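CO-FOLDING WORKSHEET

Operator: S.A.
Ligand of interest: adenosine-5'-triphosphate
Run index: 351
Mode: holo prediction, single chain
Checklist:
[x] sequence pasted
[x] SMILES validated
[ ] output reviewed
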Amino acid sequence: MVSTRTLGAFALTHVVGEGGMGVVWAGQHVQQKLPVAVKLITAHGAGDPRFVDALRDEVRAVARLDHPGIVHILDQGTVSADDHRRYGGDLPLGSPWLAMELASGGCLSDRGRPLTWSGMKSLLAELLAALGHAHARGLVHRDLKPANVLVAGDADLRPGLKLTDFGIAHAASRFDADRSGDRETIVGTPRHMAPEQFRGSWRDYGPWTDLYALGAIAWELATGQPPFPGHDVVRLAFMHLNSQPVRPAGDLPVPEGFWPWVQTLLRKDPSSHFRRAADAAEQLAAIVEAGAPDADRTLSWRLGGGLGTTVDLSADASFAPTAEVDGTEADYAAPALPLGADGFRAWMVCP
Ligand SMILES: Nc1ncnc2c1ncn2[C@@H]1O[C@H](COP(=O)(O)OP(=O)(O)OP(=O)(O)O)[C@@H](O)[C@H]1O
Ligand SMILES: [Mg+2]
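OUTPUT RECEIVED:
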């Protein structure tokens, strides 16, 4: 399809995906003819100048990262009155946009293709290398999930896995704190969020926050299920804060040494985690292959965590859940979250 839309230096050709915060277009740099993806953030509140400022600062920091495992940011801007007049509803006035490297192989949550243990191990090692690069430069992703791991194919400029949406969750939480008077905020995707994120204790955030999310991805790759399944945000919060994931029965195609490794990533207390991505990578490489599956045994799950909706957990939300806990029907107390507290609002992307 030939495009009539241009945004900044970029022509937008077609929509490649949609997430909790907006729409992603494929296109190209008009002058250089380089393929690009342009993410247009249209979620409620995204046009607020405070969000635009927070996002601009975060994206500036992320644009300095230079690693093959992190999507390269090319430019950013907001939809001008001219753009909006020309293209109307497709480009809402004031919406921030980011132009970045195109990764046309979809994301990790789209992949249903089989993965051997060694394939899974190298995938995890690639993600750890990318995280290590960002962490060493003081940036924590805060919303690591399969939908934020893109796959660039051979036809793309830099093939391989790419972390995307670095800084977006942080911008959303800074904006929220700004408009609500520095109250605590929760921003992230509950299925992959670390306990300190559910507690809203942002002073405890660090590389281990992303390593926890990586543990949740690794668990899902190995078992076909997230460590704590379901969609009920409060139940997920309770489980991430209090429960140990239960390893499914059966013969899973990963070596025994995988389990203590992934359980270390998923520890509740940040101080007992691997402190750095490099520590986790070193231990991953050292997993003894004894008891490892045959090379041709594969994991072929489809990961969750794809499209999300942004929900606003405002003061009137009701939290009195009853749910299955480890297979038994049980009441559980709503966790000590800042949810539902007076005037508290949070941006969350549901799994
Ligand atoms: N740089 C890119 N190149 C190619 N496709 C992309 C790119 N960035 C995103 N996409 C596609 O757009 C889809 C939507 O991405 P988006 O980041 O908006 O949503 P999400 O990650 O599912 O949710 P969230 O809003 O929490 O980030 C992705 O699943 C992916 O398929
Ligand atoms: Mg995303």
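REVIEW:
The CA atoms of residues 227 and 245 lie 5 Å apart.
The first helix runs from residue 49 to 63.
[x] output reviewed
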